[in-house]
Each structure stands twice: as structure tokens, then as C-alpha cells.
Design goal:
This protein is α+β, with helices and mostly antiparallel strands. The protein is about 20% helix and about 25% strand.
């Protein structure tokens, strides 16, 4: 007898909740354990963000999308919203926040809460390195009714607020570390926990709106598929977006017609020129007819045996959940979230040089170690400054100087990159971003001590980190360095590249005082090398493909094709493959074995391989 092993995997705070039904929350402390008599104002839902930035990139790690006072040392305009207090009397105010840079100095992320124009005495963001509920004292309300809440930034140095809670309970119990309970509690207080989940049906669902995801969407749409693309940020492009500003590298291969619509010119990394390419990219996707779900955070999936049946995503500002159904899915998240949630085999870190013969001299251990470890290429936060015609002071940043460690700079580039064996690029993403922010502010402060820089001021500092490497999802073929250096030709070739093998290592490992600077290691390949389709679908989840840096490869195997144009070629291949999946009623592995020549023809290859 056939048993339908259908399961829902709801991800809350990185915790996978697997059940055979579809409850909103299967685990975690019951909501009725906590105070629900008060009024909750989530920062992501504030009516006016003022000068604060809405940060969605750490939702899985801390349980929310928070407002960030990213003013580069100048306090930002107040964020504000209105809430209705149903009773008069004493109301206690709590704010979920953290001191992002604890130490023997004044906390850089300080802010106050204003209620009806009056500031509470408490300064938030001043204690507790982890996210927590900070007691802000009490206010007196002469009558019930509407009040205005404001977040008042005091420093311009990245204070952060997840939510404000007002209650008349004497000693309220509030969820915090149990992110499953926290999410359920938020859904209860906002009322969205009672809403029916809206279901959407498509031919293809792509999670991740970087260059790989965008290319996949355009390719699939060109073949008539109804395509949904889910992106946690408000814009598309990932590392190439105007929020991160990395120019696209690599070749277009056979995908020029599509990639020219979404790539960038070769501007200096961090340059405002990225804004022009952003307009081009967003326009191209909009006119294609792809269904765009920007500002939606994927939070889980439903599996039917070895297939994904649906993916769920939260709209950032409202928290409302949508369920996306399709016969085929593409993981273009970079961090491999769909594969990870769905139980696919993933790799993280460097393999031993003995595994795939990927070490060579000089600097053999920097390429591949004798023993496998969890080191990966790091994340970069780009930034720059500008010279003006008048003097500009910069605030004291004693809290940043220990990280800068004497370094002086007025701009950053790709080599401003942080990776540590003690921090995980996914689990510790907020700490990694914050470490580079300290490096930036400390290095700029050191440079400002010179009279020649008296008129220089910060122009732009990203608040979104650009990642190079994290999880890699295993397919039927694991791509390695040898595939590049020996320029192997595969019968299922679907993309190509010419750039050198390019891996990075932290200069700190070779004696540098700074742990946030890196250096590139290059090895020439001697010409064009190729990628196989078997590295672009999961061997464990039969209807899921991967496009981008989470494709099936070794650590060094990623070092060549990890750049965005090459990842875009992967996206094009998976988008066309999805069209063939629909045409023949097959899964990606079957398309690769039965219709590879047709797939290659769609991509633009006319010569036989193999």
C-alpha cells in the first residue's frame, strides 16, 4: 500500500518544525504562557520609517525584520507609527533590541522611544548583546485612545528595534529566545494567526532574486511559464543591487540576450552607478510578466515524499503568509535554504586537499587544508567617502577602533571581507556584518586624524553584506577544481566560463593586524571551462534545481564560477530546464538524461558535447 509521506516544514528562527499536518506552530512554548493582554507594534510595520532602514537579512536568526538606524554617524530621522491603547492607566513599555557592540564604551546603537512627543528616560540598545526585551519604564494615559510611537536615534550608528510592546501587566512574560514561540505570539497579537493562508499556483517558483534567480525567471518566462520569484529585499539583483553594489563579473556565455537585461556595467564596487542598473533590471523583470514577490521572506516548505509541494513566504511589512505551489522549484537563495529545509545533503567549508586533489603550492594550505575545516570565503560590506569644500568632523568611535587596529581608509573594496572559523556565514550573519561596520567606522576615524582628510565625509556605507559562500547543495555531480583546470567537457554542458580559479583568504592568517581584509589566490585555467547540468539539481529533492553559489561543488570548485554572470548562466539553464519539465511532465534529472540536447539548444549550444 502506498503511504503518502507529506510533511510541512515551517521554519521559524532557523528551527525546522516538521509535521504530517499543516499547523502554524507544532513546537515551542504555548502562546498562552506569555502575556497577550497588551499592544504590539512591530518595527517592520511602522507607518513611517523615517531615516531608519528595514533590515530583513537576519529574520531566520533573530525572529524578525527590524529597523536599523544606519546614519553613518549622523542620527537619522524618527520612525513613527500609531497604536490604539484600549484603556486608560499605567502602561509599561518594552522594546526588543540589542547592544550590538558591547564593551567598556558608550553603546553606539543608542535610541529612545517617544510616546505622544515625550521621550522615555530609558536609552535602548545599551545592554545585552543578544536580542532581548528591554524594559523602558511606564507611561500614564489619562484616557484610552490612539498614541504616536516614535523611535528617536541618538547616534546614527546602527541602533536596532524589532518591536515595541505596551502592557498593563505588572510582570509580563514575553517570548524571546524561543523564536518559534516569539513568532506565534506576534501572529496572535496582530491577528494574522487567524488568517487563512493564501495559496498561489505557478509553473515554476524561484526563491532568491539575485542575478541567478532573475536570469532563471526570464528564461522560464520566455518559454511561456507562469513564474513566481520570491525575494526578501525590496529590489532584485542580490549582490549587484544598489543596496550592495558589486559589479557583475564573468562572461555571458550563450546567455547574453538575457544577462544584458539584468547585469551591470563595470563600475567601481560601491559606486552609485549601481542605481542605473537597478532601474534597468527591475524594469526588465516587470515587463517580462514574471510574478514578482519582493519583500517576501521564505519561511518553510511542504514536502510530498522526495518532492517540494509548496514554499511559504511572509510579506515583510504585514507578516501575512502566502503559500506558493508549483511542480518545479529553484533554490537561488545563495544560502541554499530550500535544500537545507528539505533535507538535501549540503556542504559547508573547505574539503581536505586529499578529497579531490585541490591543493597546490605555493600557499597550499590556503587553497585546501590537510584536514577539512569550516572556513569559507567571507562577506563584504562596501563603502566610500567624498571630498567636499568644507570641514567635516566625525564622532568618537572608541568602540570601533579595536577592530580597525590602526588601519586607515576612506573607502572600501571587495577585499574588505570578513570570514572566521568561529562564525558561520549563515547562523552568525548579523555579527559578521556588524564586525565589518566596526572596521569601516574605525578605519575612517583613523584616516580623519590626518589634516588632509579634514574635508572628507562618509558618502555611503552598505547595511547589507554581500556574501561569497555558505551552503552548497549536492547534486548528481560535484564540481571541483580539476573540472576547471583540466577544462573538462561534459555531455550535459550548460554553461561556460574563462576566469581564473579565484579563492580568498584572510590576511590575518599570514600575519596582518586586520582580520577584515582578504587577498585573492588565482590559478589560471588556460581557456574556457564548462559546467554540467548534473550540478544544478538536487540528488535528494527530485523537483528542485539550484542556481548560483549554492550549486553542487566543492569549496575550490566554487572559486571560478561563483561570480554573478556565471551564476546567471546557471539560472538561464535551470529556467529553460523548468520549461522542459513542464513540456514532458518530468523532473530535472529526467530532463538531463532524456532531453539534454534540447536543453542545450534552448541555451544556445549547437555543437555536440561528450
Amino acid at each position: 500500500m502506498h503511504i503518502n509521506r507529506r510533511s510541512f516544514i515551517r521554519i521559524v528562527g532557523g528551527t525546522a518544525l516538521t509535521t504530517t499536518l499543516a499547523p502554524r506552530y507544532a513546537l515551542g512554548t504555548p502562546v498562552d504562557t506569555f502575556d497577550t493582554s497588551g499592544v504590539l507594534a512591530e518595527a517592520c510595520s511602522f507607518a513611517d520609517e523615517g531615516g531608519w532602514k528595514l533590515d530583513t537579512q537576519h529574520y531566520q536568526q533573530m525572529g524578525g525584520s527590524y529597523l536599523l538606524a544606519h546614519g553613518m554617524g549622523i542620527p537619522v530621522d524618527n520612525a513613527s507609527t500609531k497604536v490604539n491603547l484600549p484603556k486608560a492607566g499605567t502602561w509599561k513599555v518594552f522594546c526588543r533590541t540589542r547592544d550590538w557592540c558591547p564593551g567598556d564604551w558608550q553603546a553606539p546603537g543608542r535610541f529612545r522611544i517617544r510616546v505622544n512627543g515625550k521621550s522615555l528616560k530609558v536609552e535602548f540598545g545599551t545592554h545585552g548583546e543578544s536580542w532581548h526585551w528591554h524594559d523602558g519604564g511606564a507611561i500614564e494615559m489619562a484616557e484610552a485612545g490612539e498614541v504616536i510611537l516614535e523611535l528617536e536615534d541618538l547616534t546614527g550608528f546602527d541602533g536596532r528595534c524589532d518591536a515595541v510592546y505596551l502592557t498593563q501587566a505588572d510582570a509580563p512574560s514575553l517570548p524571546n529566545e524561543d523564536l518559534v514561540a516569539l513568532t506565534a505570539w506576534k501572529d496572535t497579537l496582530t491577528g494574522r494567526g487567524q488568517l487563512e493562508i493564501q495559496e498561489e499556483n505557478f509553473d515554476l517558483v524561484i526563491v532568491g532574486g539575485g542575478i541567478a534567480g532573475c536570469a532563471a525567471a526570464l528564461a522560464a518566462r520566455s518559454q511561456g511559464l507562469e513564474v513566481a520569484i520570491i525575494q526578501d529585499r525590496p529590489v532584485f539583483g542580490g549582490n549587484a543591487s544598489h543596496e550592495i553594489r558589486v559589479h557583475t563579473e564573468g562572461i555571458h556565455g550563450k546567455g547574453a540576450d538575457i544577462l544584458e537585461k539584468i547585469d551591470t556595467v563595470h563600475y567601481p564596487n560601491g559606486d552609485a552607478e549601481a542605481e542605473k542598473d537597478q532601474i534597468k533590471r527591475d524594469t526588465s523583470i516587470a515587463v517580462s510578466g514574471v510574478h514578482r514577490f519582493a519583500h517576501h521572506i521564505a519561511i518553510g516548505l511542504e514536502k510530498d515524499e522526495d518532492k517540494i509541494a509548496s514554499v511559504e513566504a511572509r510579506e515583510v511589512r504585514t507578516g501575512i503568509i502566502r503559500r506558493f505551489r508549483a511542480p518545479t522549484f529553484i533554490d537561488a537563495t545563495g544560502d541554499g535554504w530550500l535544500g537545507f529545509w528539505g533535507g538535501a545533503e549540503c556542504r559547508y567549508g573547505r574539503e581536505s586537499r586529499h578529497d579531490f586533489d585541490e591543493g597546490w603550492e605555493p600557499h597550499g594550505d590556503l587553497w585546501s587544508p590537510d584536514q577539512a575545516d569550516n572556513r569559507v570565503m567571507g562577506s563584504s560590506v562596501l563603502w566610500n567617502a567624498e571630498r567636499t569644500d568644507k570641514r567635516h568632523d566625525f564622532p568618537d568611535v572608541a568602540w570601533a577602533l579595536p577592530v580597525a587596529n590602526g588601519h586607515q581608509a576612506t573607502k572600501g573594496e571587495w577585499y574588505w571581507e570578513y570570514s572566521s572559523s568561529k562564525l558561520h556565514q549563515v547562523h552568525d550573519a548579523e555579527k559578521i556584518r556588524d564586525h565589518v561596520l566596526r572596521a569601516i567606522y574605525g578605519s575612517f576615524s583613523n584616516a580623519k586624524k590626518h589634516p588632509k582628510n579634514a574635508t572628507v565625509k562618509l558618502k555611503w556605507v552598505a547595511h547589507i553584506a554581500g556574501k561569497r559562500e555558505s551552503r552548497r547543495i549536492m547534486g548528481d555531480y560535484l564540481y571541483t577544481m580539476k573540472d576547471m583546470t583540466e577544462r573538462r567537457i561534459f555531455p550535459d554542458t550548460i554553461a561556460e566560463e574563462t576566469r581564473s580559479v579565484d579563492s580568498h583568504y584572510q590576511l590575518k592568517r599570514t600575519g596582518s593586524k586586520q582580520d577584515f581584509l582578504s587577498k585573492a589566490l588565482f590559478r589560471k585555467t588556460g581557456g574556457t571551462y564548462y559546467l554540467p547540468f548534473r550540478s544544478l539539481y538536487s540528488r535528494d529533492i527530485t523537483n528542485m534545481m539550484m542556481a548560483g553559489r549554492c550549486f553542487s561543488c566543492s569549496h575550490i570548485g566554487l572559486a571560478g564560477p561563483r561570480v554573478m554572470n556565471t551564476c546567471g548562466q546557471m539560472g538561464i539553464s535551470t529556467g529553460y530546464a523548468a520549461a522542459l519539465c513542464r513540456k514532458y511532465g518530468l523532473v530535472p534529472r529526467e530532463v538531463g538524461s532524456q532531453h539534454i540536447k534540447e536543453l542545450q539548444g534552448l541555451i544556445g549550444y549547437t555543437q555536440p558535447f561528450g
